[in-house]
Amino acid sequence: MDLTIGIIGFGARATLREEAHRPGRGSRITAICDPSERARDDARRLLPEAFVTDSLDDLLASGVDAVMVLTPDDTHAALSIRALEAGVAVFCEKPLAIDLADADAMLETARRTGSRLYIGHNMRHMPVITLMRGLIQDGRIGDVKAVWVRHFVGHGGDYYFKDWHADRRRTTGLLLQKGAHDIDIIHWLAGAYTEQVAAMGELSVYGGIADRRDRTGERMPDWFSVDNWPPASLTGLNPVIDVEDISMVNMRLSGGILASYQQCHFTPDYWRNYTVIGTEGRIENFGDTAGSEVRLWNRRHRGAAEADETFVVPEAEGAGHDGADALLVAEFLRFVRDGGATETSPVAAREAVATGILATESLRADGSAITIPALEPELVAYFERGQVE
């Protein structure tokens, strides 16, 4: 029998419906909730057999087995907690929450109710990341001691400064909103969580643009164009812009591993570069999609050198995020049905959120290091057991 799935928030990430709606093959979307009339009209057109409403209570009462929370960041915690309290399994899009207390409350609610919680950190399924992690796990560079990440957010102006993303009340900041992915992957590749974090950042470009307007009812595809260049020439930015467009973070992870993360929203190119250095070599990706290369150096060289080995990032089935979305949703559905271990982790999602939130606190103060508060060991153990008491 198919699992019945409810979608909460039929906006940009509602493309995940293509992976979740497989009638007769294990799952079907039966209910959709969104306060936007445009979103509800889209839902009725794309999924005509589904129940469409603006009431979360009505969606939860419809008898769905699980929900996918695909709403703006500041709503994740409240919506997820209500669904967990109703005994419904939850897929929550990253970031887990924009407030650390809310993130911890989500985990605590999942444990207390026994409702399954899954977080949409799809980068753990991206071929470039799984390739790099496999090399690390195979011992090809020895013990990891440093991870350096540069995130060139070439579409930043259109993606994050023309709507709610630019308002810190909705996101805390882009270091959390966008960086939650990368911080999670830093932790995953290093096999350790951040213990201390310090950061600096600025609103360097987009804060100086005076052309602003309310885009209520619009969506990012309505205004996006690669011809919107250079960054300072953009028009129609969000009325409120109080998040940083460039930030730099230093992290001390458990075991003495050091990491850094740089994020810039006004670069001409759009990709992530990871460098992982171990006791016996290093790896680095050049491009992050299928056909890109991961290069490995594990011999001593004089100066810059060709890689000792090169690995090509493989193709993956599915279009979303280089195939990662299909793998993500498939893992969620399997978890709802059967339980068991998953590549994603609510604890890891919390640690990424904690690092991003406190890094933002550091950069908005004097850049001093802040210690990440630890979760209760019993709560960590619950999720490590696969959410089984």
UniProtKB/TrEMBL annotation:
GO terms for molecular function: nucleotide binding; oxidoreductase activity. InterPro entries: Gfo/Idh/MocA-like_OxRdtase_C (IPR004104), Gfo/Idh/MocA-like_OxRdtase_N (IPR000683), Gfo/Idh/MocA_oxidoreduct (IPR051317), NAD(P)-bd_dom_sf (IPR036291). It comes from the Bacteria. Its EC number is 1.-.-.-. Residues 4-121 form the Gfo/Idh/MocA-like oxidoreductase N-terminal domain. Transmembrane segments: none annotated. Pfam families: GFO_IDH_MocA (PF01408), GFO_IDH_MocA_C (PF02894). Keywords: Oxidoreductase. Residues 134-365 form the Gfo/Idh/MocA-like oxidoreductase C-terminal domain. Belongs to the Gfo/Idh/MocA family. This is Putative oxidoreductase YteT. It comes from Microbacterium foliorum.
